[in-house]
Inverse folding.
């Protein structure tokens, strides 16, 4: 067996396992109450967002607090594609990626003149500038606080040129006739997630990825050797922005609406939490973090006092009320408290995120008995 084959086999095996896990999500996610299409779509979309962010933060160590700008730009570009050209999702995705790449190139070129906390502050400033422009200044393009939406008066030149059908309601996004709603929409997002994961895996295992890891390890030392690191960091920033633009486009594909709130600093902070929770610099970690946060946001937030009372109905009435009052602090509107406690515990005891925890568990089972150790 050649050296190349030895290197490729684990990579393709990882991709096959990942593909099987993603495509079977409607089955195994239903066990934990997360098997419905809307939530599965969010898992896939924010998984793409987190994978892209991890290419920048996980490989180079540059912490961006402005990636929500590219998420919003992707959404606006996709909705304008639906309004002007066609409800087919392919042009919308292409426009979103291209516009996000262009903005990432400009913002990255300026921000990467600094490193560390100064870089983070610059990206945050650009994101907030983008948010305020979208919210109040560029209202002819973004429709301000109302958000950009579809209307029956939209030109949709390509669709109208090839179809004379008149629709009573708003049109629905489609992939060459397949409506992008329900499980069809999830599988479209899941296919792109698998492709994005493969690209990320190739980046991690490529010479380009090794350069980025070297920059994270000691950028100053690499600069002293005469190596110009800026083109590499800028390329990583642009690739990461393209991932965010794609995620923004998919948000518009599943719900044709683009609003300035997608550019808020909280959206940038959310992807940072996803990456840290799952494991910075790992392939699967950011996906786990994205899934965990979206699960808490959609499942834990839906648990109210009635659900808790039914769950503790086997207890005496006094204890039932006590336990309901206690647990209501951590679910429903208090789901952020549960997430905060979990994040604190992971940062303290598992600095490498959930992936470090899985590695520790794996090491416990892989330990050889003392008599077998050489």
């Amino acid at each position: 067996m050649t050296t190349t084959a030895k290197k490729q086999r684990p990579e393709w095996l990882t991709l096959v396992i990942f593909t099987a896990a993603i495509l079977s999500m409607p089955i195994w996610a239903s066990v934990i109450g997360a098997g419905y299409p809307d939530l599965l779509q969010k898992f896939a979309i924010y998984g793409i967002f987190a994978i892209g962010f991890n290419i920048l933060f996980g490989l180079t160590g540059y912490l961006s607090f402005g990636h929500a700008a590219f998420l919003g730009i992707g959404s606006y570009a996709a909705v304008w594609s639906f309004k002007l050209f066609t409800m087919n999702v392919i042009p919308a995705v292409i426009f979103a990626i291209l516009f996000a790449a262009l903005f990432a190139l400009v913002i990255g070129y300026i921000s990467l003149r600094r490193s560390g906390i100064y870089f983070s502050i610059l990206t945050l400033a650009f994101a907030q500038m983008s948010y305020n422009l979208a919210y109040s200044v560029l209202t002819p393009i973004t429709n301000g606080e109302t958000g950009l939406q579809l209307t029956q008066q939209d030109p949709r030149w390509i669709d109208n040129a090839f179809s004379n059908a008149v629709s009573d309601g708003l049109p629905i996004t489609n992939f060459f006739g397949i409506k992008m709603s329900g499980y069809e929409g999830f599988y479209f997002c899941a296919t792109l997630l698998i492709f994005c994961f493969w690209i990320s895996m190739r980046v991690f295992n490529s010479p380009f990825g090794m350069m980025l890891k070297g920059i994270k390890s000691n950028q100053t030392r690499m600069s002293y050797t005469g190596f110009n690191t800026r083109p590499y960091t800028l390329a990583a920033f642009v690739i990461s922005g393209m991932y965010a633009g794609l995620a923004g486009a998919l948000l518009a594909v599943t719900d044709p609406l683009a609003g300035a709130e997608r550019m808020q600093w909280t959206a940038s902070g959310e992807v940072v939490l996803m990456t840290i929770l799952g494991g910075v610099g790992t392939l699967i970690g950011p996906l786990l973090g994205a899934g965990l946060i979206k699960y808490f946001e959609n499942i834990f937030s839906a648990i109210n006092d009635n659900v808790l009372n039914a769950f503790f109905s086997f207890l005496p009435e006094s204890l039932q009320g006590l336990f309901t009052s206690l647990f209501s602090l951590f679910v429903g509107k208090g789901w952020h408290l549960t997430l905060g406690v979990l994040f604190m515990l992971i940062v303290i005891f598992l600095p490498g995120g959930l992936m470090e925890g899985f590695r520790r568990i794996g090491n416990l089972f892989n330990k050889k008995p003392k008599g077998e150790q050489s």
